[in-house]
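User: quick one, fold this
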Amino acid sequence: MPVYSLLLEYEGSRFHGFQKQTEIISVQSVLENSILIVLKEEVKIFSSGRTDTGVHSKGIIASFHSKNRIDNFYKFIKAINHLSGGSLSIHGMKEVPEKFNAQYSCTEREYEYWVFLSKYPSPLLKGRAYHYKHKLDIKKIQDECSHLLGSHDFTSFAKPSSLLKKSPIRNISKIEFRESKEIHGLYRLTIRSTGFLHNMVRIITGTLLDIGNGKIKDRNIREILQKKNRIYAGATIPPDGLYFVKAFYEKFPEIEELYKEFYKINEI
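Assistant:
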């Protein structure tokens, strides 16, 4: 039975998250319903990330098994994109080994959180970035980021109810806070990990902003980690500025090839 991987982009405000839920629109339900129409077959979609309501995707990976062999990827992608009504777009597709699963085979995930630092809002970034009007010590934020690298207990940076059956230990391999070269005042927090706890990226970003503007003065990131208590971290900022950027698969080079093809096509 062939297995296919998809590279997906979508605008998060149109969906109640990725995972299928009863009687509400999700990314998974739109994909599965569209594939049912095209292939005349019910499939189950797996994904490299189960984004929450309002969270966007620049490059999430999905996969499904099919009884049908798809010979023309272009026609399939065109049909699914049309049926989705513009709410999501498949940018690439590959047949992958039968043991591949977009969710369980994924070894690392990378997110970005966009912060627009400006006295006034940008209509072009509404719903795409978190508008932040306060002054920030950028250097201090960048220094604090280094304390998050490596393996830590992230209890302080997670929604408490989400930890009842999960280990709070996560390993961050990359984190940086930099201004965009394209848009003045737009900063991106890029963070890569083996896995994320619920609201983890939004809480980390909110905490860094609170430290950067002096709202949190009596403790730093290292001390907040050591407290292992949510009350010591900063605010959970809105989902608008959060993007799933890329999934990593150590044993499946086909996915890296899929990303490379997408980036090559979109080079300016």
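User: anything notable?
Assistant: The longest strand covers residues 169-179.
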